Amino acid sequence: MRLFVSEGAPGCLPVLAAAGRARGRAELLISTVGPEDCVVPFLTRPKVPVLQLDSGNYLFSTSAICRYFFLLSGWEQDDLTNQWLEWEATELQPALSAALYYLVVQGKKGEDVLGSVRRALTHIDHSLSRQNCPFLAGETESLADIVLWGALYPLLQDPAYLPEELSALHSWFQTLSTQEPCQRAAETVLKQQGVLALRPYLQKQPQPSPAEGRAVTNEPEEEELATLSEEEIAMAVTAWEKGLESLPPLRPQQNPVLPVTGERNVLITSALPYVNNVPHLGNIIGCVLSADVFARYSRLRQWNTLYLCGTDEYGTATETKAMEEGLTPQEICDKYHIIHADIYRWFNISFDTFGRTTTAQQTKITQDIFQRLLTRGFVLQDTVEQLRCEHCARFLADRFVEGVCPFCGYEEARGDQCDKCGKLINAVELKKPQCKVCRSCPVVQSTHHLFLDLPKLEKRLEEWLGRTLPGSDWTPNARFITRSWLRDGLKPRCITRDLKWGTPVPLEGFEDKVFYVWFDATIGYLSITANYTDQWERWWKNPEQVDLYQFMAKDNVPFHGIVFPCSALGAEDNYTLVSHLIATEYLNYEDGKFSKSRGVGVFGDMAQDTGIPADIWRFYLLYIRPEGQDSAFSWTDLLLKNNSELLNNLGNFINRAGMFVSKFFGGYVPEMVLNPDDQRLLAHVTLELQHYHQLLEKVRIRDALRSILTISRHGNQYIQVNEPWKRIKGSEADRQRAGTVTGLAVNIAALLSVMLQPYMPTVSATIQAQLQLPPPACSILLTNFLCTLPAGHQIGTVSPLFQKLENDQIESLRQRFGGGQLEETFDLKAKTSPKPTVIETVTTAGPQQIQALMDEVTKQVCSLSPVGDWTS
Amino acid sequence: MAAAAELSLLEKSLGLSKGNKYSAQGERQIPVLQTNNGPSLTGLTTIAAHLVKQANKEYLLGSTAEEKAIVQQWLEYRVTQIDGHSSKNDIHTLLKDLNSYLEDKVYLTGYNFTLADILLYYGLHRFIVDLTVQEKEKYLNVSRWFCHIQHYPGIRQHLSSVVFIKNRLYTNSH
C-alpha cells in the first residue's frame, strides 16, 4: 500500500502515529505530493493524506486510514471510540482547522486562535475528568486517542494554546505525546519547527468559513453534566433516608498501625526533606501536604493507613552546613529536624510517624540490602578520578567545581553541565578547574568506588514495571521520566562517597567511605518504619497485601521509580515496591523561583508569622497544586481565592445553613419533606460526591477540591432560590418549606465538613463542632449523601469560619517576602546572565556566598540529591 | 429528515422491534441515544453502528479490515460532507465525485451492501428527489446505485420512491 503525504498536511500526524502504533509502517510506501495535487481520481478537490490500498481502493479520510491500520493489527473499535471519531470529524475538525488557519496563515495569536477551539477542548477535558479514565475510551489507549492527539498536537504542543485549567486534557495530552510512535510522527511532520511546519500546506487551503450555525452558541457544558435519570434520583433519595444507620462501625485505632489481612492496607510516604534547610511552600505542597490529604482521605474511607516521613540527614550538604555553623553534623541534624517537625505540626500534617535517617536501623537495613546485592553480584568496583581540593581538604561534589567547558570553551561551566552548550561534563574534564568555595585549583586523585550494576537489573525492573504500571495511578510525569530513563539504557551508578557523615560501607578497603545518599535515602522509609515498630517488615516485605503510595516532586522520580526498585529487586527479599508513584510538577513563586539566598518566597517557618491560619495556606496550596503542570503561588490570587471561594462561597453557605437552624428553628434541625426539586438536588450532590471519590481514588487532589466548592455553590443557589428567610414568615406551607430547605442545607453543610477534612482539618472540626455532628459521621465518608443531621437534632453555636483578607495586608506581605516588582528586575538579571551573580567576581567566599552555593546544591529540599550530581 | 426519524427508519430496516427514543442535542440537533446499560451515545453514525451490532448484523459494517475502513470512511463522508454542505454548488461537486466513484461499483464497498449504502441513501434522498431528469442522467452511476438501494428490501419504507428513466433522453450529455 502507498501513503500519499504532503509537506505540512496536519492529517499526516495521526496517520503516521497510527501506523507506528499498529506497526503498519513496515509495508508502507510513502510518496510526497504537492498540497494541490489530486491523488484520488474520483475526488474533485485535493486531499492528503491518502492511502492507496493494494486492491486499488483509496482511503481519503484521515480517521479511516488510522482505523485501517488498527484493524490490520486486529484492534476493533467500540461504540465509545466511534463516538469520539464522529465528534472529531464533525465538531473538532471545523474548529481546529479554523484555529490553525488563523494561527499559521494569518498570524493571529492568543484568544483569536483559542476562541474557536476552546469549547471543543473543554469538552474533551470534561469528558476525561468525568469518566475519570486516563484515555478517551477507557482505561486503555484506543484509536480515538491517536486520532484526536494527532489532530490537536500541532496546536497544543505550544503551551499557550493548552489552557491551564484543563488539567485532565493536559495530562492526557502529555501521556500521549511521550509515546514513541507519537513522538516520531510529530518529529517527521513538524520537523521541530512547531506549528509553522504546517504553513506550506495550510496556505494553499481555502480560508475556513466562520462556522455557519455551529459552535457559536455559548451553551454551558454544565448542562450536559446535569442530566439525571429517574433511577439516579430515586437511589440518592433512598440512600439519604437511611441516614446514620448506614454508617459502618468506626474501626478502632491501632498503635502501631500494622497491615491487616483482608483489609485494604495503604502505606503512604512523602519524600524525605533534606534536613539542613527550611522547606518552602513548593516543597510542602509537593510532598508532605499532598500525601497528608491522601492519608486523611484514606482514613475517611476506613482503609488501614500508615503515613510516614522524616528528615534526610546524611550527605555533603549537612557536613558543609555544620562547618558553616560551627556545629557537628549531628548537632545540625538535631537542630533542623526539630525545625522541620515544628513546621509540619503547624501545617497539621497527620504523620503516623516522622523520623530521621541517622539511626542505627538505617545502618542495619542499608548494610543488609547492600550485602545482599553484593553476594548476588550486583555491585561493581571501579577506580574513579575525582577532583580534590587540597585547601579545603575534601573531594569536591560536581557543583562545587567550575572551569572552562571542554566542548565550547565557556569559562564558567559547572562540574556537571555547561550552561552555554548544555552538554554534560565529567568534572575532571573541565579545563582550569576551580574550587567554588576557596577558588584554589583542585587536583585529580584516583579513588576506589562501588557501583550498583543497574544494567544487570534492568530486565527485572522492566518486568516489574510491566506488571505495575497498567491500571495503576502513577502520574503521567512519573511514567514519562521512568520510561525515558529506561529508553536511554541504565548505566552503573556510583553508590559510595568520600565523606564521613553517612552510612558506613561494610566492606574492606572502604572504611573511610559512606553510602551516597541516593542509594540509602530511600531506604530511610524502611528504617523510619523500623523505628516506629519492630514489625516493620509486615509493611515493607508484604507486596501482596500492601498498597504503597509515594508522593514527591518530579525531580525525585528516578530514585523511587528506578534506583530503589532496582536495589530492592536485586536484594531478592520480597520488598514492597511502589504501586502508585505520585509526582507533582513545580510550584513557582509569583512567576519566579523560591530562593532562600535572595529572600524570595515564603518558607515553612514564616507562614506562621503571616497571621494567616494554616488551613488557609493548606487550601490555597492545594487549590494551585502543580498537578499535571507547573503552577505559581501569587499573593493576589491567594487573597482572591480566600475571599471568593472560602468566604463568599463555602463559608457563606455553611454559615447561613447553620444560622437558619439556630435563628428560625431554635437550634433544632426542622422536619424535611422533600419535593422533586429537593430530590434532584440530593442527586446532584450525590453525583458530585461520587466524582470527588473517583478523583481522590486516583489522587487527583486539586480536582477533587473543586467538587467541594461545586457542592457548596449548588447549596448557595438552593438557598437563594428558595428564600427560607422569607418563607419562615409566611403560611404554614411556607414555613414547612423553609424547614425543608434549611434542613437539607444544613445536612449538605455537614457533608461538606467531612469532605473538607483532608484539605482543611481544623475548619472541618470547627464546622462539626458547630453542627454537633455525631462522631461516626465525622470520621467516615461513604459514597452516598446521607442525612446525618435528622429532624430534631440539636446543633451548637454557629459562628463565621473565615476572615476576609484585605488588600493592604496582602500587599505588605508581598513586600515582606519579595516578589512583584522587585522579583521582576531580579528575573531580568537572571536571564541575561545564567550564572548566579554572587560568584562572578569574588575570589574568596564569605558566608553569604557559601549560603548561595549551598542553596544551589540543595535547591529542591524534597530531593534526596540534585539529579545533576548523579554522574561521578 | 431529522436524525431521530432516520434512526427509527434504520431500526425498522434492521428488524429491531423495540423502538428507541432519541433526544437531540445542540443547534445541529445531533441525536442522542440513552442506552440502558451504559452511558448515552451521541452522533448519527455512532448510534447507527451501535444499532447494527444490536441487530446482530455486523456484516453491514464490513467483513474485512479494508471493507470496515471503507464503510466508516463513507459514514464520515455522510455526516461531514453530505450533511455539512447544502449549497447547490457543493451538492453538485459531491454528486460528481460520487458518480465517478461508483462507476465500477455496485455498492459503496464494491460488491457488498453495507450500512454506508443505507445512510448515504437516507442522506441523499432529499437532494435526489429534487434532481431533474437531465441531472439524474448526468449522474448516471449515482442514479443506478440510488435506484438499487431504494428497492433493497426494507430500506425505503415511507420515503418517496424516486423515478429514474431507463432510456437515455439526453444522448449528448456526456
From TrEMBL, chain A:
Q: Which organism is it from?
A: Macaca fascicularis
Do you know which PROSITE patterns this protein is assigned to? AA_TRNA_LIGASE_I, GST_CTER
In which broad location class does this protein mainly occur, judging by the first location in its UniProt entry? cytoplasm
Its EC number is: 6.1.1.10
Q: Name one GO molecular function term.
A: methionine-tRNA ligase activity
Name the chemical reaction catalysed here. Answer: tRNA(Met) + L-methionine + ATP = L-methionyl-tRNA(Met) + AMP + diphosphate
Q: Which domain of life is it from?
A: Eukaryota
Q: What is this protein called?
A: Methionine--tRNA ligase, cytoplasmic
- Record carries keyword tRNA-binding: no
Q: Name one Pfam family in it.
A: Anticodon_3
Domain GST C-terminal: where? 74-198
TrEMBL record, chain B:
* Assigned GO CC terms: aminoacyl-tRNA synthetase multienzyme complex; cytosol; nucleolus; nucleoplasm
Keyword check for Nucleus, yes or no. Answer: yes
Pfam families referenced in this protein's UniProt entry, alphabetically = Arc1p_N_like
State any GO BP term from the record.
Answer: positive regulation of cellular senescence
Matches recorded under PROSITE patterns: GST_CTER
Query: What keywords are annotated for this sequence in UniProt?
Result: Acetylation, Coiled coil, Cytoplasm, Nucleus, Protein biosynthesis
Residues annotated as domain GST C-terminal: 50-173
Entry keyword annotation includes rRNA-binding:
no
Locations listed in the record: Cytoplasm; Nucleus
Entry function: Positive modulator of ATM response to DNA damage.
* Assembly and oligomerization: Part of a multisubunit complex that groups tRNA ligases for Arg (RARS1), Asp (DARS1), Gln (QARS1), Ile (IARS1), Leu (LARS1), Lys (KARS1), Met (MARS1) the bifunctional ligase for Glu and Pro (EPRS1) and the auxiliary subunits AIMP1/p43, AIMP2/p38 and EEF1E1/p18. Can interact simultaneously with MARS1 and EPRS1. Forms a linear complex that contains MARS1, EEF1E1, EPRS1 and AIMP2 that is at the core of the multisubunit complex. Interacts with ATM and ATR.
Q: Report the protein name in the record.
A: Eukaryotic translation elongation factor 1 epsilon-1
